Amino acid sequence: MKTLTPKLLCLMLLAALLAGCRKHEAAKADEEASSCSDMYYDTDNAVYHWKTTFSPDSFDLYFLNRHNVRTIYMRMFDIATETDPLTGYSQVVPIATTRFLKPVPKHTNVIPTTYITTNALREMRGKEEEFARLIVERLTAMHAYNSCGLLREIQFDCDWTPTTRASYASLCRHARELLDQKEVRLSITLRLHQLDEEAPPADRAVLMLYNTGNLKEKDTRNSILDVDDVTPYLKQCGKYALPLSYAYPLFGWGVMFRGGKFVSIVAEDSAGTSADEHIRTERATAKEIMEVKALVEKHLGKAQGRTVLYHLDQSQLNHYTDEEIQSIYYD
Question: In the chain, where does DSSP find H-type helix?
Fold first, then answer.
């Protein structure tokens, strides 16, 4: 369908910018008060935060401190499409915006991140420059408004496809041009199947070493991470054009099938409600993660940036010991 001018995105951006102006001076004072908050860590430990509220509790603070985590990739919002109820046309809008209920811990480098759906990319075609500006400005405004310290990098997360590759490259190129003026880097996420494709215009990438298998196939052993799924991609790839960080999964779920057909992702402890339902429990063990880590470093080299864990959630992280987490970060 025809893409409308993204009025809703503009309005939401304007509101964020106006609010950000009110707190700009306070945020600036906070930054100057702590020299450590102005430090930029290129090779530190990192973690993703992928919830719609940021409210770190005692466990989260312990985790960050215990494992010397200095960088949080903070999902700020998603870019998706929705139908305008008045016109019936599809438009590109930000959804699932993160609310900050508590302040960002001091000495923490926050990288504002947005997930961009492939449907949104299709609707952006021909207007990538406009959307790059809107997305960059909204991420920048949210980062400033929530007193996230010195902005040195933003990240685009997108599982682009052959039909959306050109549009995504254009979006990244325009975003990078804007960010270069601010001396801010653009990083992107990278899936295994994208390793042998031309790198989008960006400064660095995070290779996501999870969700490697076919979730909806009933015979899949573990769609989150399986060394047998990872190996073929690494054996056939050469050196990637961008500096790579590596992200590993510390999460699990259940995958429900009914009559042998995929139904949905459910909680790990869910139970089937009928005889023809089956739930496959999936979680990568620390040993499996370390096996994949050794494999990826053999073929692509040591991380040129960060080791990143997904994600900051006590219910998921409790499945791993401190020693196991330390081994993933440091071994």
Answer: 7-33, 58-66, 118-124, 128-145, 165-181, 227-236, 286-300, 314-317, 322-330
